[in-house]
């Protein structure tokens, strides 16, 4: 018998946090048909501390990967709430769009975003494999190191 998503998260030592409330005029997730669109989630931990700074100007790739992993955890937390607490309703992670707070000459955004992508594949297996964009950006809200949004097919 295969593991449930909750069992896989527990095995990885991940407890999904209660999602943060929107800080502006938007909703955290919108479901239309069988697609769930999750608003961008920044690199904030369960204690409310945001991983901040620019990649290539004080932050290295490993730190960026850890920040992107936090974004993945927050995306999963938002998905869980939007799906009534049942992540088993995830059919496929369709697309991730990652924004990496980058110094002008930083070009390793895909390596940073692997922190998010790798966790989705670890947790969801093949249905966690997705299309993706990794974009360098001059600034993010709260000086967050990363922000990631998701499109997820759901049952």
From TrEMBL:
CDD domains, alphabetized: YjgF_YER057c_UK114_like_1
Residues of the Endoribonuclease L-PSP/chorismate mutase-like domain: 7-151
Gene3D superfamilies: RutC-like (3.30.1330.40)
PANTHER family: ENDORIBONUCLEASE L-PSP_CHORISMATE MUTASE-LIKE DOMAIN-CONTAINING PROTEIN (PTHR43760:SF1), ENDORIBONUCLEASE-RELATED (PTHR43760)
Protein name, entry field: Endoribonuclease L-PSP/chorismate mutase-like domain-containing protein
Species of provenance: Azorhizobium oxalatiphilum
